[in-house]
Amino acid sequence: MTNHDPHTAAFSKLFGHQPQASASAPGRVNLLGEHTDYQGGFVLPTAIPQQATVLLSRNGLRQHRLHSANLEQTLEVEVGSVGTGFAPYLTGCLNLTGTQEGMDVYIHSDVPSGGLSSSAALELATLRALRQLSDLKLDDVELALMGVRVEHEFVGVMCGVMDQMASSLANTSAMLFLDTRSLERQVLPFPAGAEVLVLDSGVPRRLAESGYNTRRGEVEEASRQLGVAQLRDVRDIQQMETLPEPLRRRARHVVSENARVLEALHADAAHFGQLMNASHASLRDDYEVSHPQVDELVALLQAHPQVLGARMTGAGFGGACVALVVAGQASAVTAEVLPRYSGQGKQVVP
């Protein structure tokens, strides 16, 4: 770290001393396997180029000074407390790693909010920096699971393990096939002849957190009524027919989505795209976590001749769309689709 780095220079100017550790972690886009990870399901994420960066240092005080460059805001939180705003993402990491002294923390992220795991990237970058600072004997899987605990215990979002595992373990050049129950994983190539395109719909996810926890409660109740530990254990989709609405549709999404991920492992690009299209329909109709403008953008993508498949990605209620397109055609698809979209969308990846 040198003052030639703009973040290091900004940290030094803000706090009056050099950072002692710094780390980054990427956002992720999920190609298939949405809303299955908190039911022990299968997922297929990949990392995106955009990252969250965290610089930190001990400050000798009894309070943490937390600065967000994106928000141009500094929060002060007593050691051992949680705080409000963006603070819980950081103080959760500090508290879980047993930090007993005040820290100066500077964060900057170019991961767009809305379906691309900006929060997981922030948590993993913070945990990586703390691991570096205090020489913590924690491997990348342990860091990911600690990030999940931050969401559950400090942020209040009962997420599964996919986002943090992807931010900790995935890279931008391959897919990460993850069994979220056993945490067994395999790095797989993208379908031959295709590339990934991510467009931000421009719709902020206003209901994502409350809606996410509601959906989790619904599928947990569906599991209870079906007599299984998790919907991962359901083998016959006809079992869903015994459930009352909306539990029937919620469970049908999770069970069918798991099947789509497993089918995608052996699919060529065209078939993989068809599975993405089916996933979006299921998320829209059965899980009801899409948004009219997201649906519009997905439909425009799906109608493009160079697009093999497209779907919403992330928790839903706004946010990003992911498409599998013919290799080399992502920019052309973007240039043709966005002018026809009624919202303010933008290209995120590649």
TrEMBL record:
Biological classification of the source: Bacteria, Thermotogati, Deinococcota, Deinococci, Deinococcales
Gene: galK
An MF annotation (GO) of this entry: ATP binding
GO cellular component: cytosol
Gene Ontology BP terms: galactose metabolic process
Location of the GHMP kinase C-terminal domain: 263-334
EC number of this enzyme: 2.7.1.6
Entry protein name: Galactokinase
Family note: Belongs to the GHMP kinase family. GalK subfamily.
Keyword Metal-binding included in the entry's annotation: yes
Superkingdom: Bacteria
Domain GHMP kinase N-terminal residues, every copy: 98-169
